[in-house]
TrEMBL record:
Protein name from the UniProt record: Mitogen-activated protein kinase
Source organism (scientific name): Bagarius yarrelli (Goonch)
Enzyme Commission designation: 2.7.11.24
Region named Disordered: 43-88
CDD domains associated with the record: STKc_NLK
Length: 476
C-alpha cells in the first residue's frame, strides 16, 4: 500500500459541529458549548472561569459544593499526617450506561481536564462478580492502544473494611456510533471507512491479546468530533478459551449483533463473534438502520438466513440440536446477498465484498480482523487515519513520517491466571485493593470522591437504580 504524504483528507474535520451534538452530552452547567468543544479539541484546562482549578480548598469545607462544575483540588499534604491527602473529584452528570456500570463526566481537579468516571457496581456481591470486575479492571489497565479505551486512573480505595465500590477514570469521548447513526449528521463513505478501519484496528489488538469483547455494538464504539474511535465497555469481555470442550456462556452480545453460532447455542466460540458484530455495524453505517432487527433470538436467526440462505450442515456443526432442527425444518432459502447493494450509494462492489466476508454463517470461514484490515476497502481509511488522526505517525517539513506498523498487535497476551487463585469474596477484595494501591504507586496525587456533595448523592442514586437492572446479568 502506498502513502502519499501530501494527502489531506476532508474527513479529519469536525464530524459534529458543537451545536449539534457536543453540548448535549457534556457541557457542565455554567460553561457553554464553546468550552465543551475546546475540551473535545484537546484543551487541557477547560474548567471555566467560575471554578479556578488553582484554588486550594481546606478539607473542612468538604461537602459545601452543590456540584455541577469542576471540583477543586485538596492541598497535597495534610498537617495531621504525612500521608498525601487525595484530590477530590465530584461527579458532574451521567453520560452513558455500560453492561455493568454507569459512566459520569467529571473534571480532574489536578489539571482541570474533563474525563469520564465509571463506577463498577456490585463488585463484592459474590465470587463471580468479583472475578468479573477484577478482570475488567485489569484489562482497562492493560490496554495500550489508541482505538481501545483504557484506564487513566483509579480512585483511591478506602481502607479495606469500607471498600465496596471501584471508580475508574477514562478519557472522555464526545459521542458514540449509535448516537451518530441515528442523528441527522451526514455520514460519507470517508467517515464509514475511517470508522471501520479504527474498529478493526482496535479489534485486531484485542484479539491478538487473546481477548474477546463479546458486546461489540455501535453504543460501545465511542467517537470524538475528529472521528477518533475507541472500543469501550469490557464488562462482558473475557480471554479466549482454547479448550473447545469447555462451555462458554451464551448470554453475550446484544441480540441484533449476535453471531449465528451464539444464536444457535454453540457451547464454544471465538473471536469470530466480534467480527460478525462488526459486519452488522458496517451494514448499519451504510444503510443507517439496524441490519437484523428481530424481536427474538429465533427471529434473529431467521433474518440472518433470509439474507445468507440456509447454511450447509457443516456450518452448523457446533449448533445445539434444537437450533439445527429449526433451520432444517424450515424451507430451503437461497442467499439474497445482492440486497446489500441497496443499503446505500456507498455500498460499492468493494464494500459489499468486505461485508460478505464478515457476514459468513460459518465462524471458521469468517474473515479475521487482521485479514479484514488487508482488504482494499480499508486502504483509504488507513491513509486518512495515519495522515492526520493517529499518534503513531508525525509530520516534518518535508512530509509525513509513517510508523512501521500501522495496526500493531498487543505486546503480550492478557493473562487471567490470577482468576484461578481467587477463591473467596474476601480474598478477591484483598487482591483488588492491593492491585489498585500498587497501580497508583509513584503516580500523581491520588483522587477520591467527595461523598458529601449533592452531585455525588445524585450520582449514587443513579448508579443504584441502574445496577439493580444489570446485577442479574452475570456471566461465566
Ligand atoms: Zn499513524
Amino acid at each position: 500500500m502506498a502513502f502519499h504524504g501530501s494527502a489531506r483528507p476532508a474527513v479529519c474535520g469536525n464530524l459534529f459541529p458543537a451545536s449539534d451534538l457536543g453540548h448535549k452530552y457534556f457541557c457542565v452547567s455554567g460553561s457553554g458549548s464553546t468550552a465543551a468543544c475546546s475540551v473535545l479539541n484537546g484543551s487541557q484546562n477547560p474548567a471555566g472561569p467560575s471554578h479556578p482549578v488553582e484554588t486550594p480548598r481546606h478539607p473542612s469545607t468538604i461537602g459545601g459544593s452543590t456540584g455541577g462544575g469542576a471540583a477543586v483540588p485538596q492541598p497535597h499534604s495534610s498537617p495531621a499526617s504525612e500521608v498525601p491527602c487525595p484530590a477530590e473529584m465530584e461527579p458532574d452528570r451521567p453520560i452513558g450506561y455500560g453492561a455493568f456500570g454507569v459512566v459520569w463526566s467529571v473534571t480532574d481537579p489536578r489539571d482541570g481536564r474533563k474525563v469520564a468516571l465509571k463506577k463498577m457496581p456490585n463488585v463484592f456481591q459474590n465470587l463471580v462478580s468479583c472475578k468479573r470486575v477484577f478482570r475488567e479492571l485489569r484489562m482497562l489497565c492493560f490496554f495500550k492502544h489508541d482505538n481501545v479505551l483504557s484506564a487513566l486512573d483509579i480512585l483511591q480505595p478506602p481502607q479495606i473494611d469500607c471498600f465496596e465500590e471501584i471508580y475508574v477514570i477514562t478519557e472522555l469521548m464526545q459521542s458514540d456510533l449509535h448516537k451518530v447513526i441515528v442523528s441527522p449528521q451526514p455520514l460519507t463513505t470517508d467517515h464509514i471507512k475511517v470508522f471501520l478501519y479504527q474498529i478493526l484496528r482496535g479489534l485486531k489488538y484485542l484479539h491478538s491479546a487473546g481477548i474477546l469483547h463479546r458486546d461489540i455494538k455501535p453504543g460501545n464504539l465511542l467517537v470524538n468530533s475528529n472521528c477518533l474511535l475507541k472500543i469501550c465497555d469490557f464488562g462482558l469481555a473475557r480471554v479466549e478459551e482454547p479448550d473447545s470442550s469447555r462451555h462458554m456462556t451464551q448470554e453475550v452480545v446484544t441480540q441484533y449483533y449476535r453471531a449465528p453460532e451464539v444464536l444457535m447455542g454453540s457451547r464454544h466460540y471465538g473471536s469470530a463473534i466480534d467480527i460478525w458484530s462488526v459486519g452488522c455495524i458496517f451494514a448499519e453505517l451504510l444503510g443507517r438502520r439496524i441490519l437484523f432487527q428481530a424481536q427474538s433470538p429465533i427471529q434473529q436467526l431467521d433474518l440472518i438466513t433470509d439474507l445468507l440462505g440456509t447454511p450447509p450442515l457443516s456450518a452448523m456443526a457446533s449448533a445445539c440440536e434444537g437450533a439445527r432442527a429449526h433451520i432444517l425444518r424450515g424451507p430451503h432459502k437461497p442467499p439474497s446477498l445482492s440486497v446489500l447493494y441497496m443499503l446505500s450509494d456507498g455500498a460499492t462492489h468493494e464494500a459489499v465484498h468486505l461485508l460478505c466476508r464478515m457476514l459468513v454463517f460459518d465462524p471458521a470461514k469468517r474473515i479475521s480482523g487482521s485479514d479484514a484490515l488487508s482488504h482494499p476497502y480499508l486502504d483509504e481509511g488507513r491513509l486518512r487515519y495515519h495522515t492526520c488522526m493517529c499518534k503513531c505517525c508525525y509530520s516534518v517539513p518535508s512530509g509525513r513520517v509513517y510508523t512501521r506498523d500501522f495496526e500493531p498487535a498487543a505486546e503480550r497476551p492478557f493473562s487471567h491466571s490470577y482468576e484461578e487463585s481467587m477463591l473467596s469474596v474476601w480474598q478477591g477484595k484483598e487482591l483488588i485493593h492491593r492491585f489498585i494501591t500498587e497501580h497508583q504507586q509513584g503516580k500523581r496525587v491520588p483522587l477520591c470522591i467527595n461523598p458529601q456533595s449533592a452531585a455525588f448523592k445524585s450520582f449514587i442514586r443513579s448508579t443504584a437504580w441502574h445496577s439493580s437492572k444489570v446485577s442479574r446479568k452475570e456471566e461465566r
